[in-house]
Amino acid sequence: MNTSIKTALFATSFALIGGFSAVGIYKLTEKPEKVYIKTIADDEENASSTLVSNYDLSGTTNSFEFAAEKSLNAVVHVKTASTVNYQMNPLYHFFYGNQTPPQEQIRGAGSGVIISDDGYIVTNNHVIHNADDIQITLNNKKTYPAEIIGTDPSTDLALLKIKAEKLPYINFGNSNQLKVGEWVLAVGNPFNLTSTVTAGIVSAKGRDINILKSDPFSGSSAIEAFIQTDAAVNPGNSGGALVNINGDLVGINAAIKSNTGSFAGYSFAIPANIARKVVEDLKEFGNVQRAFIGINIRSIDEALAKEENLTDLNGVYITDITENGSAESAGIEAGDVIKKINNKKIDDVPELQEQLSQFRPGDNIIVTVERDGDLKEFPVKLKNFDGTEKFITKEATSIFKSLGAKFENADKTTLKKLKLKNGVIVKELFNGKLRSVGVRQGYVITKINQTPVNSVDELVEILKTNKNNGVLMEGIYENGRREFYGFGMK
pLDDT tens for residues 236-284? Predict the structure, then answer.
């Protein structure tokens, strides 16, 4: 069997396996609906022309023409190339034995929005996910290679950078002020049709369509509070701009809900206020600083309202309070119903997630809750996922994710009980190095490579210095059993 035939058969098997999986998912879905998030191939050749300046605007303001002129040149074509990893296919050895299969690249494309004149571009994470090469084509056909500054899968956002100056860009608007029924334009590159503008209205806000995955490391759920519009959006629009009648960026187009994969009347965009905060974090820290209030919550339905004697179905019900969390410190209790964050009314869980996603650890907010029929305001200082108000560096996040764990400094009671002078507790475990070598929750790390560990910060610093070396971890469990674990840090 020659190489070309093997490659074709192997690729066919890859597609068939994917096809069978899709059919399975389709049949297990109660309603035959699929949410498609697609990018498309784009093979336009580069050309050269002059872009309209960000300030070179004419005509009447507050019109479709004004909004289109202001935004068209700031929306770019994002072209990607990703190498196929055939060795992940279960039929790999059948076709190739021990040989290395031919390399094949998958090419795709979406859109992006220039948000500063020095080349920062926001797009969807799914547009550039696993890409080996990213090329940005401007509206004047000039093409630039792009660098990934950072990504945030839980909001489906990514920040790119190209080496260019004096670019046209779009200013962020305030998506909190966006109203249902307000006119908006979607700008992007659907079906290889570059620089396409469609119009529609805001059909709804705070939509949760269950397409993003939670972060198992931090325990934070995906943030879905999409702006729903009826502006026509198709594969290739992903990462493009949703602008209001003033030409301000109010959303990043992300998905369509359809049975066919093409526009069927529903399109969804990530609110600009979420995108702006994510972008600022990625630029400054390389990762997103997520703020937590320290509560477990659920939406209110008629059954819950009847059971808990709630006055209405609006708001978010607090089922439990996290120990030592922000809410507990502020005096908020289980059974309270969140009605407002600052002055923003909260009707459901997506709206609460949207508002909290705009803050960082250490920020102060006012939470209004209903308790026993009365409204009460509580000043709350938000914390990060490990219960402190510090910003978490990109390097620390990388280490925590590699280990697959959350840590906390050992308290005095634990140290006294185990007769220790120092230690860091493994608070939670996820998939990672610690679980793979047999570490269990509650393990108190006392030393790493013979160096005493007094705090989570010291743990990070020690592991940073052993980044490409072996690690010997020494510690003890609550029952007094002392254990040693070894693994590599790469």
Answer: 999 999 999 999 999 999 988 777 777 888 899 999 999 999 999 999 8
Catalytic residue among 156, 208, 281, 386: 156
Task: Name the helix (H) or strand (E) containing 377.
Answer: strand 374-381
User: What residues contact 132, with CB distance under 8 A and at least 6 apart?
Assistant: 81, 82, 83, 105
User: Nearest CA to 382 among 367, 372, 369, 368?
Assistant: 367
**Which of 126, 218, 326, 386 is the catalytic position?**
126
- Between CA 323 and CA 382 the distance in angstroms is 14
Q: Beta partners for 107? A: 81
Strands 75-83 and 105-114: antiparallel
**Residue 126 is a catalytic residue:** yes
d(CA 252, CA 246): 16
- Measured distance CA(444)–CA(483) in Å, rounded: 10
What is the DSSP code (8-state) at residue 2? Answer: -
Q: Which residues are within 8 A (CB) of 172 and not within 5 positions of it... i.e. 6 or more apart?
A: 115, 248, 249, 272, 273, 275, 276
CA 384 to chain centre: 16
DSSP letter, residue 471: E
| Euclidean distance between CA atoms 326 and 84, whole angstroms | 45
Per-residue confidence band for 59, with pLDDT thresholds at 50, 70 and 90: very low
Structure tokens, 111 = 């859109």
Query: Is-catalytic flag, 156?
Result: yes
Q: State the amino acid at position 216 in one-letter form.
A: P
- Catalytic residue, from 238, 267, 326, 357: name it: 238
Alpha-carbon distances, residue 15 vs 9, 37, 261, 397, 409 (angstroms) = 10, 18, 17, 35, 49
pTM: 0.73
CATH of domain 295-381: 2.30.42.10
Beta bridge partners of 335: none
Q: How many residues does the chain have?
A: 490
Q: Which helix (H) or strand (E) holds 327?
A: helix 326-330
pLDDT tens-digit map of 376-429: 999 999 998 777 788 877 778 778 888 888 888 898 999 999 999 999 999 888
Question: Taken in order 286, 292, 296, 297, is the CA torsion positive or negative?
Answer: negative
> Which residues fall within 8 angstroms of residue 109, CB to CB, at 6 or more apart?
39, 40, 41, 42, 77, 78, 79, 80, 189, 192, 236
On whether the 394-488 domain is CATH 3.20.20.60, my answer is no
- When pLDDT is cut at 50, 70 and 90, the band that residue 103 belongs to is low
Q: What separation in angstroms does the CA of 207 have from each of 9, 253, 257, 354?
A: 42, 13, 12, 10
Instruction: Say which DSSP state 472 is in.
Output: E
- At the topology level, CATH places domain 33-288 in Thrombin, subunit H (2.40.10)
